[in-house]
Amino acid sequence: MLEKLLCLFLPCLPSVSPPSVSVTGIATTYYKGDGFTPGKYFGCWEEAKRLLGTPKFRDDLPTVAMRSEHAKCGSVVRITHLKSGNRTLALVVDRGPFGCRWKNGSRSVEPSGGCIPQGGKRIALIDLSPVIAKELGSSGFDKVTVSW
């Protein structure tokens, strides 16, 4: 379903080449505590505006956040939920996720670079918009494979 929606935004989508990189890790879902509520600007706002027509986050857009060492801004990624087998496409138009797990077991959202120097560990590979999480059947903390 979302692949058809994404085609509305990216008419060239059928010509996207097969994925050459795949990474498996934890997917989290955007939530209000992240500060990414509707109306806030995406980290890659120029790409979001060019590809989606808006530089601002909306719950209904097929978008994800990945850190820059993974997929570039504007990349189309295929996400596969490993437990359910559900998969969908999304656009990387934000940076993150910035969730940290601390030695005492607690979790928090930290700004870029704030987790590891303070003794924490990054939790997730990718942060999903609510519409992508729903498409995958994600509970908000699930193992996925991301390909691009």
Describe this structure in words.
It contains three helices and nine strands; from the N terminus they run H-E-H-E-E-E-E-E-E-E-H-E. The chain has 148 residues and is an alpha+beta fold. The protein has a single domain, classed as Barwin-like endoglucanases, CATH 2.40.40. The longest helix is centred in the N-terminal third of the chain and has 8 residues. It starts with a helix and ends with a strand.
Please specify the SSE layout and strand pairing:
Layout: H1 2-9, E1 22-29, H2 45-52, E2 63-66, E3 76-81, E4 87-94, E5 99-101, E6 107-109, E7 121-122, E8 126-128, H3 130-136, E9 141-147
Parallel strand pairs: 1-8, 2-4
Antiparallel strand pairs: 1-9, 2-8, 3-4, 3-9, 5-6, 5-7
Number of domains: 1
CATH architecture: Beta Barrel
Summarize the main sheet: 6 strands, mixed, barrel
How many helices? The count is 3
Low-pLDDT residue intervals, each spanning 5 or more residues = 11-15
Instruction: Report the top-level CATH class.
Output: Mainly Beta
Classified in CATH, the superfamily is RlpA-like domain
Radius of gyration: 15 Å
The outline comes out as globular
| Helical amount | 10-25%
β content, as a range? 25-35%
In the sheet with the most strands, the strands line up as 1-8-2-4-3-9
Distance between the termini: 19 Å
Determine the CATH topology.
Barwin-like endoglucanases
How many beta-strand segments? 9
> What class, by secondary structure content?
alpha+beta
- Provide mean pLDDT, rounded: 83
